[in-house]
Hints:
This protein is α+β, with helices and mostly antiparallel strands. It contains eight helices and eleven strands. A nine-stranded mixed beta sheet has the order 6-7-10-5-11-4-3-8-9. A two-stranded antiparallel ribbon has the order 1-2. Strand 6 (234-241) and strand 7 form a beta hairpin. It starts with a helix and ends in a 21-residue tail after the last strand. The relative contact order is 0.12. Mean pLDDT is 77; it is low at 297-311.
Amino acid sequence: MTIYLDVVLLENLCMNYIILFATGYILKIKMKHWRLLLSSLLGGVYAVVSYLEILPVYSHILTKIMLSVGMVYLAFYAKGIKILLKQIILFYLISFVFGGCAFALLYFIKPQDILMKNGVYVGTYPLKIAVLGGLIGFILTYIAFKIVKTKLKKKDMIYQISIKLNNKSLNLKAMLDTGNLLKEPITGMPVIVVEKQELSSIIPMTILEHIEEIVGGDAQKVISQEEKEYLTKFRVIPFSSIGKENGLMLGLKADEVMIEKEEEKEVREDIIIGIFPQTLSKNHTYTALIGLDLLERNDIHEFTTNFKVKY
Length: 311
């Protein structure tokens, strides 16, 4: 049986790329495709070298572990040991899932001329089987993580955020609320809902005390000359909540919002601060609500305004 090394390289490169992409996608990492390709190529070259038995050390388990760490670090450039370990664990988990899917497809197809040498499967192992197995594994893994995410405990859903508005800063604890799909209807900017009383340090009391008048269009009558700069930041956001349908919420465009996620900090300049007049948490564990879209990629804008308040 004739084995073409370029096919071995291509098959492993494709599988490595799919696994790395799935790892980054599930972990919500901002990926650079050239890094993924370079890391995938490293894994493909390793497969070819292992098959050729150029150096015995390449088949050692420590070499394989070092390769995995190197591939993950090259692909995602983790900024901490904890984050790197998390990425490596998920990389292995997805690899096992993808491998199982590929083996299942091979079981049903039952190719006759296939063999394994030094951990590398070769033969009439079609590239489309490798890719299809990877795609099925990706879908299964993504669905599984979506299910797990919905079962997170509330303590795992609290994030530290910092809001900057007109050279003033405010630090808050915000809860991830999957029911908060609130958007500013014109621009599609996501809305962070914050308790009114918490905003007094960055928003003048004149504004907080006259929210209904401002929403009703009488902002010029209640705002002083010194506070005119806030006029360009006002947004009126339609929402619905328990006990109130078709409501209107006053929002202000923040200059900057920083969200701390584990050991990383993400800074956003496209967020509206919605002023909520009541208390969000009975025990004051959190004083703001953020939507799931703030923790995921923001390349798709939705215009859903289905805000749900939890008591």
